[in-house]
Amino acid sequence: MPESVRGCAAGMTAVNLIDWECAYGFALDDKLSLLARLPICEAVGASSHPAVIRANALIAERIPGATLRMLPGIAHMFWVEEADATARAARDFLA
Asked: What is the 3-state secondary structure (H, E, C) of the chain?
């Protein structure tokens, strides 16, 4: 694994742990429940494994007000594979 990808994955570990807690219905502590007050766009590469897509859909369902954004033609690590498309999707969501 390239160092840049390893570093990105390591930096995302805390976020991924929150994602998995939400997807599988584990109770969030008070600090994590603040997510419900933020605009949340759960993005997933449309070319990801179906289990990954389902996990991301569950996350979006579990966070009140969250939306799910499928990024066409992109797989699981979309922020690495297609940084420009990811940035456009984020800008569109926040606009």
From this structure: CCHHHHHHHHHCHHHHHHHHHHHCCCCCCCCHHHHHHCCCEEEEECCCCHHHHHHHHHHHHHCCCCEEEEECCCCCCHHHHCHHHHHHHHHHHHC
Segment 37-62, tens digit of pLDDT: 778 888 898 998 888 888 888 888 87
Q: pTM for this one?
A: 0.60
Sequence-distant (6+) residues with CB within 8 A of 1 are: 9
Closest CA relative to residue 62, chosen from 24, 88, 92, 29: 24
